[in-house]
TrEMBL record:
GO molecular function, one term: fructose 6-phosphate aldolase activity
Family the entry assigns: Belongs to the damage-control phosphatase family. Sugar phosphate phosphatase III subfamily.
Signal peptide coordinates: none
Gene Ontology terms describing biological process: DNA damage response
Record keywords, A-Z: Hydrolase, Manganese, Metal-binding
Enzyme Commission number(s) from the entry: 3.1.3.-
Entry text on domains: Subfamily III proteins have a conserved RTxK motif about 40-50 residues from the C-terminus; the threonine may be replaced by serine or cysteine.
InterPro entries cross-referenced by the UniProt entry: ARMT-1-like_metal-bd_sf (IPR036075), ARMT1 (IPR039763), ARMT1-like_metal-bd (IPR002791)
Protein name: Sugar phosphate phosphatase
Example of a GO cellular component annotation carried by this entry: nucleus
Catalytic activity, reaction form: beta-D-fructose 6-phosphate = dihydroxyacetone + D-glyceraldehyde 3-phosphate; beta-D-fructose 1-phosphate + H2O = D-fructose + phosphate
Damage-control phosphatase ARMT1-like metal-binding domain location: 23-458
Function summary: Metal-dependent phosphatase that shows phosphatase activity against several substrates, including fructose-1-phosphate and fructose-6-phosphate. Its preference for fructose-1-phosphate, a strong glycating agent that causes DNA damage rather than a canonical yeast metabolite, suggests a damage-control function in hexose phosphate metabolism.
Length: 492
């Protein structure tokens, strides 16, 4: 595959690149976390055996199977840190093992099949999932689910952001009129929220009134200008012009993998970010269908297997609404704000109604089990291929997106797959980096810089940043006390 690419793919042979950091530190840390989670699961099973709630023979088998999985993960971690060759995926009857193994064979023939030589986009392969698939009692186990819930539950920051956004949506329902001037102001705030992944950019809309929105038409432009130096590829104008041309359209959200997007090296923050990202995606979708005449349905695209840390699976989406209730969170985080929780309750009930009515829907049934063959509807998202191969390798998915009025790709992994995670010069036009996908359907990519690949940046700016900061502006804004982002749109 690499020989057919216009540029070489990113891989860990470059010790200054983000893929090297990932293989050296991030993936081993994630694998250690999975082993810890399995140990906790085994402890819980042992207690249930003692209590008599689980038959001893059943519990013992499950613990023995978990021990086998942990041994495999430990060996994987050992092989990873010592640059051993990647192993073929067993023919376990699940997603795309033959595709991964064929690609691995080609990499082996070119001497690029070890952990520190394989292309990063390929090396995020599904071998971890294969360990669980081998055992029936663990086949539907998401090793990250418990930690995702736990960190969200105990995060006061999460609660504050959630209540703030619920209050904003409540006030918009009172004040917002279907006027393009007002809608544009809020749309730009929403897109900023979705881009940066938190509620900060909607803070000025709390307790909003018509006069507040009018004020933001001036203040918002100033705030946008202040952030302009950080937004290196800014297509918000094109995004708004495209949205307002739609009437009762359909928007598709390709949900984020925030596991490797977060620049903070703490897994707990990554997992909190996952839940907040899904929440902000739902808020954005709610705004589009509730307050604009331009959108009447939104399709959310999950992944069918837990892709390392924090991907949204069908089960995640199905359970998420039930998590947005006061009783889920620590009492100290909600007892003093009855109004905030009432506004959140109203909003969540609206979302649940939208799901029942088909206004909000998943691209696959929400009861779909992990690893289910979706006949091309969702399997492609966790294949080793860049998205420009979609038409040939996932025709049903390609045709579905062809009928969409706007497809929003969230996060860094989606951006890497859109651009193939190859060494494009940063000034390469976004549409060019999409290769065969360009012009297939309207694409909006929302991504803050967390990995090496960057396109669409003015050459002079890219060269100036390289001279001043080296690689840091591409991969980790916190280290230079700045964030950089590249929200990009292709309407070709």
């Amino acid at each position: 595959m690499a020989s057919q690419l216009p540029y070489a793919p990113y891989d860990p042979t470059d010790k200054k690149g983000f893929s090297y950091e990932t293989v050296l530190r991030r993936w081993p840390t994630i694998l250690t976390g999975v082993i810890d989670e399995l140990n906790q699961q085994c402890h819980g099973i042992s207690l249930m055996i003692k209590e008599g709630s689980v038959p001893k023979e059943v519990g013992d088998v499950k613990i023995e199977e978990a021990s086998s999985i942990m041994n495999k993960i430990s060996m994987l971690k050992y092989e990873m840190t010592r640059d051993k060759p990647l192993n073929p995926i067993p023919n376990d009857g699940e997603l795309l093992s033959d595709i991964y193994n064929a690609e691995l064979k080609a990499l082996s023939e070119n001497g690029k099949d070890t952990w520190f030589t394989a292309p990063w986009l390929y090396a995020e392969y599904r071998v971890l999932r294969s360990y669980f698939v081998a055992f029936q009692q663990w086949r539907q186990f998401d090793p990250f689910l418990s930690q995702k819930d736990k960190t969200f539950k105990h995060s006061r920051t999460s609660v504050l952001h959630i209540k703030e956004l619920a209050g904003t949506m409540h006030e918009l329902g009172i004040a917002l009129k279907p006027d393009d001037g007002q809608l544009e102001v809020v749309f730009r705030q929403m897109i900023q929220m979705s881009l940066w992944g938190n509620a900060t950019d909607l803070s000025l809309l709390t307790h909003v009134s018509i006069s507040d929105i009018q004020r933001l038409q001036a203040v918002g432009k100033e705030a946008q200008a202040a952030k302009h130096e950080f937004i290196l590829k800014d297509d918000q104008d094109a995004a708004w012009n495209h949205l307002k041309s739609m009437v009762n359209g359909r928007v598709d959200f390709i949900l984020d993998n925030s596991g490797f997007e977060a620049s903070i090296p703490l897994l707990i923050v990554v997992l909190i970010s996952h839940r907040l990202q899904l929440f902000t995606d739902l808020v954005f979708a709610d705004f589009l269908v509730t307050y604009t005449p331009h959108v009447n349905s939104v399709v959310f695209h999950p992944k069918m297997i837990p892709w390392f840390v924090s991907d949204v699976t069908p089960l995640d989406f199905k359970r998420f609404f039930s998590l947005l209730k006061p009783e889920f969170f620590e009492k100290a985080n909600f007892e003093d704000d009855a109004d905030g929780w009432e506004q959140l309750s109203v909003m969540v009930k609206r979302w649940e109604a939208y799901v029942e009515q088909g206004v909000f829907k998943l691209s696959v049934p929400d009861e779909s089990p992990l690893g289910e063959n979706t006949q091309g509807k969702a399997d492609f998202w966790t294949s080793p291929y860049p998205y420009w191969d979609m038409k040939n390798l996932a025709p049903p998915l390609y045709e579905h997106l062809r009928s969409s009025d706007l497809v929003i790709f969230k996060g860094d992994l989606n951006y890497r797959k859109l651009t193939g995670d190859i060494k494009w010069p940063p000034w390469t036009p976004f549409a060019e980096s999409l290769r065969a996908l360009a012009g297939s359907f309207p694409i909006l990519s929302l991504r803050t810089n967390k990995a090496d690949v960057v396109v669409g940046v003015d050459r002079a700016i890219a060269e100036e940043l390289d001279a001043k900061m080296g690689n840091k502006w591409r991969v980790d804004g916190r280290q230079v006390e700045k964030f950089f982002s590249c929200p990009a749109m292709s309407l070709i």
